[in-house]
Amino acid sequence: MTSLLEVRDLSVSFGGVKALSGVSFDVKAGEIFSIIGPNGAGKTTIFNCLSGLYRPTAGAIRLEGRDLVGLPPKDLATLGIARTFQNLGLFEHLTVMENVLLGRHHLMATSLLGNALRLRSTVREERENRARVSEILEIFSLAREADTPIGVLPYGVRKLIEIARALAMEPKLLLLDEPVAGMNHEETHRISEAILDVRRRHGTGMVLVEHDMRMVMTISDRLMAIDFGQHVATGTPHEIQNDPRVIEAYLGRAA
Ligand SMILES: Nc1ncnc2c1ncn2[C@@H]1O[C@H](COP(=O)(O)OP(=O)(O)OP(=O)(O)O)[C@@H](O)[C@H]1O
Fold it and tell me: Which GO CC terms are listed, alphabetically (predicted)?
């Protein structure tokens, strides 16, 4: 089976600093794949390459066999890569429904003129988009908050909404950047369940960067550990937890 995502020998340098040196990994369709490593290991740099914010110095990135290197973020979004950010990028004065609808922006065909004239096709499209978003809000148990402005909701709920918005793009691959940073135990559990539910219902492949080891070990199918921009090990949570190289490079030092 071909991989959903193939990353080969990815290298990134900033001036003299080698942020990544020849990192390779695959993500299969419907797989939850996590990248772990100490601060400064290169995790965010990988995400920034995958979402088109950085151009790698060398290496290949392929989605379903198609080369992505050099494409701008908006083209990557159209091809099926969505991401969340460590810092929320939501519109505080808009409602939950409106924020998540914005995630579908690139899927909407109607023009501004169509909107102004309230054409029948525009009205139908809007109804369909709202129905899709309602389904997504259902997965995240957010249906009751659909008409609530984001600004009044707690941080943990906003984080869920950000994931819902990325999912509204109907991506093939969802990149989740520290989805449970700053969350309490209950919120972490809610987000973990939502992520697993998304995979169950939509079969979306996901790449996760997260420092919460318990969460990562619970929901990942496989993980890759990196250190100083280099690959350390890839395997199941059980394999990674018991790999002496990982314990040495990461877990031993993280405490
Ligand atoms: N835009 C940049 N310019 C210069 N150096 C950078 C840039 N982005 C990252 N780096 C360097 O690349 C290395 C990897 O950083 P990166 O942010 O990818 O690590 P990380 O694993 O995501 O860390 P954290 O867990 O703290 O978020 C670090 O040495 C960092 O200082």
Answer: plasma membrane
